[in-house]
Amino acid sequence: METIFTTDRVRPLLKKVRHFVQTELIPLEKGFSHHQLDELIPLLEQKRQQVKAAGLWGLHLPKEEGRSGPLGHGLTLCEFGQISEELAHAPFFGHYVFGCQAPDIGNSELLHQFASPDIKERYLTPLLEGDIRSCFSMTEPEFAGSNPTRMATSAVRDGNDYVINGRKWFTSSADGAAFAIVMVVTNPEADQHRRASMIVVPTDTPGFSIERNIPVFGDVGQGWFSHAEVTYTNCRVPVSNLIGEEGMGFRLAQERLGPGRIHHCMRWIGNAEKALDLLCKRAATREIDDNIMLGEKQFIQDFIAESRADIDASRLYVLNTAHMIDKVGAANVREAVSAIKFFVANSFLRVLDRAIQVHGALGITDDTVLSAMYRHERGARIWDGADEVHKQNLASSILKKYGLDVKKKARELQEFRRMMAAEQL
Amino acid sequence: METIFTTDRVRPLLKKVRHFVQTELIPLEKGFSHHQLDELIPLLEQKRQQVKAAGLWGLHLPKEEGRSGPLGHGLTLCEFGQISEELAHAPFFGHYVFGCQAPDIGNSELLHQFASPDIKERYLTPLLEGDIRSCFSMTEPEFAGSNPTRMATSAVRDGNDYVINGRKWFTSSADGAAFAIVMVVTNPEADQHRRASMIVVPTDTPGFSIERNIPVFGDVGQGWFSHAEVTYTNCRVPVSNLIGEEGMGFRLAQERLGPGRIHHCMRWIGNAEKALDLLCKRAATREIDDNIMLGEKQFIQDFIAESRADIDASRLYVLNTAHMIDKVGAANVREAVSAIKFFVANSFLRVLDRAIQVHGALGITDDTVLSAMYRHERGARIWDGADEVHKQNLASSILKKYGLDVKKKARELQEFRRMMAAEQL
Amino acid sequence: METIFTTDRVRPLLKKVRHFVQTELIPLEKGFSHHQLDELIPLLEQKRQQVKAAGLWGLHLPKEEGRSGPLGHGLTLCEFGQISEELAHAPFFGHYVFGCQAPDIGNSELLHQFASPDIKERYLTPLLEGDIRSCFSMTEPEFAGSNPTRMATSAVRDGNDYVINGRKWFTSSADGAAFAIVMVVTNPEADQHRRASMIVVPTDTPGFSIERNIPVFGDVGQGWFSHAEVTYTNCRVPVSNLIGEEGMGFRLAQERLGPGRIHHCMRWIGNAEKALDLLCKRAATREIDDNIMLGEKQFIQDFIAESRADIDASRLYVLNTAHMIDKVGAANVREAVSAIKFFVANSFLRVLDRAIQVHGALGITDDTVLSAMYRHERGARIWDGADEVHKQNLASSILKKYGLDVKKKARELQEFRRMMAAEQL
Amino acid sequence: METIFTTDRVRPLLKKVRHFVQTELIPLEKGFSHHQLDELIPLLEQKRQQVKAAGLWGLHLPKEEGRSGPLGHGLTLCEFGQISEELAHAPFFGHYVFGCQAPDIGNSELLHQFASPDIKERYLTPLLEGDIRSCFSMTEPEFAGSNPTRMATSAVRDGNDYVINGRKWFTSSADGAAFAIVMVVTNPEADQHRRASMIVVPTDTPGFSIERNIPVFGDVGQGWFSHAEVTYTNCRVPVSNLIGEEGMGFRLAQERLGPGRIHHCMRWIGNAEKALDLLCKRAATREIDDNIMLGEKQFIQDFIAESRADIDASRLYVLNTAHMIDKVGAANVREAVSAIKFFVANSFLRVLDRAIQVHGALGITDDTVLSAMYRHERGARIWDGADEVHKQNLASSILKKYGLDVKKKARELQEFRRMMAAEQL
After folding, report:
1. Which of D144, D217, D367 sits opposite A360 (nearest CB)?
2. Are A51 and A13 contacting, i.e. CB atoms less than 8 angstroms apart?
3. Contact flag B362-C291 (C-beta cutoff 8 Å)
4. For residues B50, B51, B57 and B60, what is the CA-based torsion angle, rounded to 10 degrees?
5. Which of B198, B67, B205 lies closest to B124 in space, CA to CA?
6. HSE, side-chain direction, 13 A CA sphere, residue A145
7. Beta strand segments in B64-160, E
């Protein structure tokens, strides 16, 4: 879909990426299961080389990066979003092969902006080259992920080191990563939003332990396709591994969020396009009675029309938000950044569900990629803030302009409850 | 909401229009009912003069138009769409006072492009000035409006005249109009899409009769706020009243549709914004228990967040479609033109329903404009092609690219049924 | 639909009622508008005499009632619910002609149980006979109807009289009523649930004034088809007009609610059946192309199937709830009494909306009863507790069994806010 | 939930079953994955013995069955449905441990009614005792399961044998089964509904081959928890293995369907109750901020209330349908049998999705049973007729009463297309 956001710069790149994805990556999908990632890795590394050779590696990067010459194309977030959609037509390999897979893309953006030259040298450079992988360690099982100001993992300063203790889960891609960026409480007495910090922890640090890859919808995954439960036990790293300053953790998490939101949403849109494409192929070729094709049925036409509109509206919503981030910064379009999260995640999951339904029994098997897409992405409505949290935030922000400060009233209540709880002790 | 579509040319106009609507028009809404339009007309005419004086009349017009000097601003469809949204904050008067109300706006676009100089002189010029009103007479009670190739009203040529006979309904604004553009069968033997023509019929022509203003949701309306049932009985007009050529009726209807769709959709978006504004005001000020406001409730927050996303996604979808029409013509973005119709109509009606619900008993009364908006716009999912028709068309167009020609198969069936029916006679 | 709830006693009654409704009442619907109720009243009174003659008057009444002989049939609530559904096939006249229209039915149940013999003699007896009408005056414009413990209308004792002052609205059917049952604060210092009382106020009492019939969706209505805004200005009635005891108002409101809920829900189910019937008739007879009927389209089939399931599930849910009320009392099935309210109101409004959509432009006109049904019943999701209130109550009741007392926590918050507000003074 | 359907006979059984499920089965769920069924089997066999000892084995059976004494309780379908719901609180083991798991329950009902004494002796008796398992082989990958009159697998008579060739899939529980009941075309020239037959095929018959257990949502399963793709290659069985008569296949499939539908629906209702129970536990115990529990949030309350109503309405709908089957036979309540399928499957999947959402990241892991329930039951809207097929059938049946025979018109079209296709050859 050509939109107003399709610039002359990005148009030829989109075409090349689309071609590569169609011819080199989609054929690899057949029969792929997450358990077999190891077997596929050599082939994917080879594809990465092709991508680099074609000058398509790291399309999210600014122009000047790169050890052995210029890497990026200096695309805007809005332009890269369109690339990201194309990559998502190969949901399991696309971003990896082009060197812009989560969580590495977010981590590299973070390090690029806030890490010391030394940290950049040791971690960012090989990360950008695809020589190593990384993970991001924030959510804890005992605390609602929706409230990133609450966590138990702590880093206590001891000489020139931080000593880290705690338990994290959904530390995605920890399996095989070279380092983690971990969110920890460093300043427990500070104001709620100034307590946490982010620290780089190499995964070979003693005390860093992957307890398990968490089975998600029956799948423990492997390598970058996995979500680990990780413990930090007296895990000691130099103070210089801190990103930015102490207490900046929450702010860094917010910074990571704006572009991250666009990446997520555009991936879902690409996934949704793929699902709709499979739906239409099925509808056009499945005979349900002599000479009567599935696609002649209005039930199916309804699915197609609703999906087309869901996806196209979603794309424009996300790209306009990316465009505004490019123009005025994420902090100034926070409402849209919240809104696209739940709007697009729900649109996508509806499209995917329709595609499964149209495939009938085939749709729930692993003979198509649809069921794996579902297992892999049902979390879209949960990760990175559940729908309900984003809706509450969005509505609160809107109501504030009408003179009702919902959050302030909620804080008073919370204060009151803390008081009550304290009295009961 | 500032979007990528907000050009420097339209930005100051939007500001002026918004101000006028807020200060001059919205105050007129209080206690307005459709039955009292007559009483209000003198006041509205006065507002029209103010609009003209401010150079804001006929913002949809190209620059060169106008009897007494330049009228228009040469806005693109996409730019005017944004104006239209602003006008819709005064749902009952906005477009009228600014001289761009339906069906006159569509009729003037049609006459401008296809009418003879004489017709333009006699009908278009006073129409653009707001000296007269017009109506558009297409739908017939006995035929599904979704299929504009089927109709019974005919024009038979007799010398230099057409003699028109038939019954139309939902001829909106016929009450008080100076002329109708009527769609009639002139060439019954031609191919299905070449049978009809459009003819200008002055409403004082003998045989033109308004049978009634049709009560819609309990409201018969008045003047341009009404939908008439009209009969044509041996209604005789000169052949020169034909618009374009014989057999062009269906094509003209299609031409009228592209921009018309944008006008409808942007009006709904403006209406939806107004409904959401009322919703938020209520949520922020209605106390439901001591010091507890309605807006603190998550049920209401859900309504607000969903509405915000529904509206913003809809706006971008419509404006991008308008932008593409401006750029490549409506014929090349037919899928989007279908999709926005049902997508936006449904988004709007959901927002409106939530606003009614949040107002409680007040919401169903006429003490706010919400219930009148509902009565006036429930038809959004019906007029101009029901949701179901647009979805079927959109899906058929998509499936054709996958090799399944749904419409061709349906035509075969239809042919077969006609054959069967003929045999039974 | 014959269900397990269709007893041998009710089956023949259902058949008679259905026949009467079909042959005597539905023909009156044609062209009826709420404004013309007056013209229709003589005819309806005549139908009432026929109903009485057929022994079908007041089917909700216990057997022993009636001035001039036995009136009722001693039906259970569950059995009467099925009658009520049949009556609702004539949405505007059914219950009235059979003497069981709201709010009289609820008022008579209340007086029957709680009023003094004298009040019964003066008000209940003629009410049961249909000689007079009554109204119920509870909701106030300034207070959320969802919270019946908050109201400003007061009754102050002065000798043997109460002196009543305040403003009520949605006092349905006040226009033409002989008396109101009004809910007033008599004991402002008592516990929240013991402040209010219910008092009978004859409408000819000085100080009782109908300010207006409130326009609802454009319709001010008339007679028992209207919702009044009423003021009470030093309105003086004898203390003996109190129903039950002082402070019982809230409890009486609750008592009124259980059976009232069943009445509402079964009326909606009957209305929904009527809407579905009209939908199916249209689908089976509307030709949309040569020899192709609307009902051949799966979009329409989807509407029909969803509606059939929505209605049938709703009916069983309500009748089982009525059966449980008959067996163990409303207080013991409070969750179901909450749940059916929002479940059935939403099912019904969905069915009705589908019926409107299938009728196309005709559906929004007053040429069918559908649009009037909508205007008359959109309030279903609002009256008698909005959806959101019932959902909150239901969930709170469920969560209490899991050890979380949501309401207690909310009360603490409220207490805290009152405290805070007091401090600010 | 005690309903009108809870008879005195079934009430004590429900209590016993509930107790057994809670104390003996639910503890086994912890950490269970489908891959490990083998390890669990010995334990489950032991539980089966306990069930038999408690006289609770085969509660679906008529009283007289059983090799070593009376097995069943002679429950009605409606009564057993309530048992089935209780068993479904242990979604993976309940029905198996109590000897009434699909597809064995359906197969035994079929054999009981239609098989020869010899077949009964050899297959039904050990099946009822739980000594062997069976499978049902009907769906083929190349044909839409929604249309059971179309299939390619054939049985050709050769002397006293049938020689069977073809490919089936979703032959559930074939892995480890002793025999299959296979649906084959025996009479290709007969009328569409008289072509197929059902034949018993022991799985050790040469030519019977399980090609694979089909991975469903990433899970290949094992044993009775699996769905096989099966080929029949010159598979030879004696003619006496025919169930009923030649050409009865379609009718037998229909017979199997009525009770099967109730079994499915009640299992989903039990599953839904389990999901809602987990949802409520989570809501009541998950702290999202200091002293603020998840269940205090209205978003969650909305989920709970909607789920409660969805489940309770579904249960009554299914039990009333079962009651009517008991009373007048499935053939006379075909509309309800269609309607409950899509109504309940959708209600259930909505409840399940809400439960996953409320659990946040935990909800998509295998640390609760929710994600496994989803993977195992997403097919609910597909198996046994997709939603769309049931809706079409239901609507067609309704429209027939209004004089529109949709199916007849569709048959004409089909005939026409066959004709057209033949001409093209």
Report:
1. D144
2. no
3. no
4. -170
5. B67
6. 26
7. 134-137, 154-158
Contacts of A412 in chain C (CB under 8 A): 416-417, 420
Residue-wise pLDDT for D221-236, tens only, equals 889 889 999 999 999 9
CATH 1.10.540.10 is held by the domain A10-129: yes
Which residues on chain D are in Cβ contact (under 8 Å) with B412? 416-417, 420
Neighbours of D (≥3 Cβ pairs closer than 8 A)?
A, B, C
Closest partner residue to D391 (CB to CB) among C305, C336, C390 is C305
Q: What is the pTM of this model?
A: 0.96
* CA–CA min distance C412, chain D (Å): 13
ipTM of the complex: 0.95
Contacts of A298 in chain C (CB under 8 A): 297-299, 302
Decide if B302 and D297 are in contact by the 8 Å CB cutoff: no
Q: Using a CB-CB distance cutoff of 8 angstroms, which residues of chain A are in contact with residue C419?
A: none
CA distance D250 to B49: 76
pLDDT of residue A61: 84
For an interface test with A, which of C298, C406, C409, C417 has the most A Cβ atoms less than 10 Å from its Cβ?
Answer: C298
Residues 6+ apart with CB under 8 A from C377: C91, C268, C271, C348, C349, C352
D2 interaction partners in chain C (CB closer than 8 Å): 324
Domain B134-243, CATH among 1.10.10.10, 3.20.20.100, 1.10.287.70, 2.40.110.10:
2.40.110.10
Chains with 3+ CB–CB pairs under 8 A to B are A, C, D
Domain ranges of chain A: 10-129, 134-243, 251-401
Which pLDDT score is estimated for A289? Answer: 86
pLDDT confidence bin for A36, thresholds 50/70/90: confident
Residue-wise burial string across C225-264, b where 16 or more C-beta atoms lie within 10 A, e elsewhere: bbbbbbbbeebbbeeebbbbebbbbbbbbebbbbbbbbbb
Contacts of A298 in chain B (CB under 8 A): 388, 391-392
Which top CATH class is D251-401?
Answer: mainly alpha
Phi, psi of C309 (to 5 degrees): -70, -45
Give residue C254's pLDDT: 86
* A323 compared with C413, residue with greater pLDDT: A323
CA distance C297 to chain A (A): 7
Residue among B101, B100, B94, B83 at smallest CA distance from B32: B94
Higher-confidence residue of A6 and C420: namely A6
- Chain segment D397-419, per-residue pLDDT in tens: 999 999 999 999 888 877 877 77
Number of Cβ atoms within 10 Å of the Cβ of D149: 16
Number of cross-chain residue pairs from C and D with Cβ atoms under 8 Å apart: 155
| pLDDT over 80 at D28, yes or no | yes
pLDDT tens digit string along D76-120? Answer: 999 999 999 999 999 988 999 999 999 999 999 999 999 999 999
- The whole-angstrom separation of Cα A3 and Cα A8 is 12
Q: How far is C266 from chain D (nearest CA, A)?
A: 15
- B378 contacts in C (CB within 8 Å)? 356, 364
Q: Measured between alpha carbons, how far is C74 from D49 in angstroms, rounded to an integer? A: 52
| Token pair of B324 as six digits | 């593409």
- Asked if the Cβ–Cβ distance from B378 to C366 is below 8 Å, we say no
Contact D360 A146 (CB under 8 A): yes
Neighbours of A421 (CB within 10 A): 11
Q: pLDDT category, D160, cuts 50, 70, 90?
A: very high
Residue B106, pLDDT score: 93
Q: What would the mean pLDDT of C91-111 be, rounded to a whole number? A: 93
Output helix, strand, coil percentages for chain A, rounded to the nearest 5: 55, 15, 30
The contact set of A with C (CB < 8 A) is 297-299, 302, 412-413, 416-417, 420
| Alpha carbon distance C73, A277 (integer Å) | 63
